[in-house]
Specification:
The complex is a heterotrimer. Chain A is α/β, with parallel strands linked by helices. In chain A, 40% of the residues lie in helices and 22% in strands. A 6-stranded mixed sheet of chain A has the order 6-7-8-3-9-10, sandwiched between helices. Chain A has a 4-stranded antiparallel sheet with strand order 2-1-4-5, covered by helices on one side. In chain A, helix 3 crosses helix 4, helix 4 crosses helix 5 and helix 5 runs parallel beside helix 6. Chain B is mainly α. Chain B starts with 6 loop residues before the first helix and ends in an 8-residue tail after the last helix. The chains are: A alpha/beta, B mainly alpha, C mainly alpha.
């Protein structure tokens, strides 16, 4: 059974007519890393937003371990958000808290877990993302790359089953991209199920077991990196890949 | 005993009130331009005039922005006669509004002058423009665009501010509302209608200014 | 002129007159303080009402928006009169001070709602989204994430508003409330030189307003929002 299964998902932004997602279907197995690529506006980030309930779908189904999520039910949505975690492209961290504060606030205030365990766990996570000495730093004292790593630690603090990463390196200065990608590699090695939206094609190719190419809200092609990048089956995918790999 | 509403009594004076509204707009208009002129000199003086000029203008600005306009006009109207300067109500109000606005508009325009970025001027210099050309094609358009929004909202604020002229007997909108209600005692109706007229003229003025801003200065603003 | 002022000064600056003026000044300050505080609380409720999501709450959102947009477009003097005549017309037993306070709260809440709105709007939507996805409730998000950040954006204009409001209270003199401007009129009708009286009143307003202005400016510089990512 797939860890995450999306079936014929369609979604439209309220107040507009054209759907931003059209009949999107994909599966992510446990421990698998699936990457979404495609031009801007193709719906990649939108798909992630729908999965975490920030945009209600108009039709289709989302299942985690076979259980369907009802995005109209607060209970169901709450349970879904327990199992999914997302890291955004920017404005991620809560500016009024330290790194440690960011990582521990949800476990303590929302989950009600006990502070000593949460803090120990948070220290472990911050060490894992390479920020062991930055516990007491505020976001404006951290570089973009460091902030994103704290954001990843924060997402992991709630012990999600599936991690969604929405272009987490796109807003970073080039030198800082590497440290975030390294962190994702570590998580991959740990066996975390991940759905990644990224423009870092080299990284996508290295780390994904499956690559999904999207355009204008629909899935154009799905397959292992070798296929999608080196031998695309559709013209649209071939066109996209040739354009991006030209640099 | 309950109060029975008689809206007809208020509405039949609508033309009279609307004339008053026009006077309010005109009074604000005069006050604005008088104040803007003072503000222009004040801002130029503050930015380019050296420390002494800055201090003098600042004293003017600080005094007029930290005291109520109403009391300033009281001073003009009641205190000046003691030194032989007698002002008609309209004149006293106008001078008061001009002086008061001048202080605010000095600061608004000063912010506009200061906002011109060195990079813009340097780019123009490198293109070979003379000082006069730089002022005309780079500085003035930039300032006009930056200042349009704050100046527009100041004008709207001033339109509402003209209502205090009624205290001195000037027959702008509020003054006329007072006149009517002293004769027919339908105070709630008359003042409600007056309030609606103020809302209408401020929305109208905002819309007109937004349109002017959009097409003349390419300043995008919400029309409502 | 100058000799008149000099000769009148001792008669004017008596203990009795000074106490009278200072009491009136106190009332001015009180009206401004209560007005801004209550205005803020009400303004916060208004903005909260304006943002309540869900189709069922549309009437509330519309009503709150209408309230804010309306009362920012009517002169304070007119609002004072309407409140006065409405209360008198329906024979509610409210003092002049009470009438002035109601009018003050009406206009203050509308302006404060706008200041608060700008403060909340300055918080990027991602902050709300991140909290929502971690299962924060709306109130929890406000308490832990948004308010601690928004208050820095809200405080400087709030101060500027308070400074403006002290001057607006002068209009309450038209109702007969014994605040500083009214006290000035009283003394002037008692025969003292208008120049002396209103000059003193202007200085007293300045003494109230200027320190707050400076404090507000200092706060604005200190709270300049950090460019966080």
């Amino acid at each position: 059974m797939p860890h995450l299964a999306v079936a014929d998902l369609t979604a439209t932004y309220p107040g507009t007519d054209t759907p931003v997602l059209r009949d999107v279907s994909l599966e992510v197995q446990k421990g698998e890393i699936v990457s979404l690529i495609g031009p801007s506006g193709s719906g990649k980030s939108t798909l992630l937003r729908v999965l975490v309930g920030l945009l209600p779908p108009t039709s289709g189904a989302v299942r985690i371990d076979g259980e369907a999520i009802d995005y109209t039910s607060r209970r169901s949505l709450k349970l879904a958000r327990d199992r999914l975690a997302i890291v955004f492209q920017q404005y991620n961290l809560f500016q009024n808290m330290t790194a440690m504060g960011n990582v521990t606030i949800a476990p303590i205030r929302i989950k009600g877990w006990k502070r000593p365990e949460v803090e120990a766990d948070a220290a472990r996570l911050l060490a894992k993302v390479g920020l062991a000495e930055k516990h007491e730093s505020y976001p404006d004292q951290l570089s973009g790359g460091q902030q994103q790593r704290v954001a990843i630690a924060r997402a992991l603090a709630l012990k999600p089953e599936i991690l969604l990463l929405d272009e987490v390196t796109s807003a970073l200065d080039p030198e800082l991209v590497g440290e975030v990608l390294d962190t994702i590699r570590v998580l991959a090695a740990d066996g975390m199920t991940m759905l990644i939206v990224s423009h870092e094609m080299g990284f996508v190719r290295e780390v994904s077991s499956k690559v999904v190419m999207m355009d204008q809200g629909s899935i154009v092609e799905t397959g292992p990196p070798a296929q999608v990048f080196d031998a695309p089956r559709t013209d649209r995918c071939r066109e996209f890949v040739s354009r991006i790999l030209r640099h | 005993m309950t109060y029975t509403f008689q809206w007809g009594e208020a509405l039949k004076h609508l033309p009279y009130l609307l004339e008053g509204a026009w006077l309010s707009l005109a009074l604000a208009f005069l006050g604005f331009w008088g104040g803007a002129l003072i503000g222009l000199f004040g801002a130029v003086g503050k930015v380019y005039g050296g420390r002494l000029v800055y201090r003098i203008v600042d004293i003017y600005v600080v005094f007029f922005t930290n005291t109520p306009a109403l009391v300033q006009i009281f001073f003009l109207f009641y205190a000046l006669p003691e030194v032989g300067i007698l002002l008609a109500p309209f004149t006293a109000v106008l001078i008061g509004l001009v002086l008061n606005s001048g202080a605010y508009l000095t600061e608004i325009q000063r912010a506009g002058f200061v906002s011109v970025r060195q990079t813009e001027i340097e780019a123009a210099e490198v293109l070979g423009m003379s000082l006069a050309q730089i002022v005309r094609y780079v500085i003035v358009p930039h300032i006009a665009k930056t200042l349009f929004a704050p100046l527009s909202s100041f004008y709207i604020w001033l339109v509402l501010g003209t209502s205090m002229a009624s205290i001195f007997g000037v027959e702008e909108l509020t003054g006329r509302a007072i006149n009517i209600s002293t004769t027919n005692f339908r105070t709630i109706e008359v003042f409600s209608v007056t309030a609606l007229i103020y809302i209408a003229i401020t929305i109208l003025a905002s819309a007109v200014l937004a349109l002017i801003g959009r097409y003349a200065f390419r300043v995008r603003a919400k029309i409502f | 002129m100058l000799d008149r002022i000099i000769s009148e000064a001792p008669r004017f600056f008596t203990y009795y007159n000074m106490v009278f003026l200072l009491e009136a000044m106190g009332r001015t300050l009180l009206m401004a303080l209560i007005g801004v505080s209550l205005g803020f609380v009400l303004g916060f409720l208004l903005d909260f009402a304006r943002r309540t999501p869900g189709r069922a709450w549309l009437p509330l959102r519309v009503a709150a928006t209408l309230y804010v947009e309306t009362f920012r477009r009517i002169p304070f003097l007119v609002i004072l009169f309407i409140v006065l005549f409405a209360i008198q017309g329906f024979r509610f037993p409210v003092s002049l001070f009470g009438v002035a306070m109601i009018a003050i709260c009406v206009i203050s809440s509308a302006f404060c709602a706008e200041i608060i709105r700008a403060g909340f709007d300055s918080i990027h939507q991602t902050q709300w989204d991140t909290a929502a996805v971690m299962n924060f409730g709306r109130l929890q998000t406000l308490r832990h994430v948004v308010l601690p950040q928004a208050w820095r954006v809200i405080l400087p204009p709030a101060f500027a508003f308070m400074v403006m409001f002290i001057k607006d209270t002068a209009l309450a003199s038209q109702l007969g409330v014994v605040e500083l401007t009214f006290a000035g009129k009283v003394l002037s009708t008692r025969g003292f030189s208008a120049m002396l009286v209103f000059g003193t009143v202007l200085v007293l307003y300045f003494a109230l307003s200027y320190p707050l202005s400076r404090l507000g400016g200092w706060l604005e510089r200190r709270l300049a929002p950090s460019r966080g990512r």
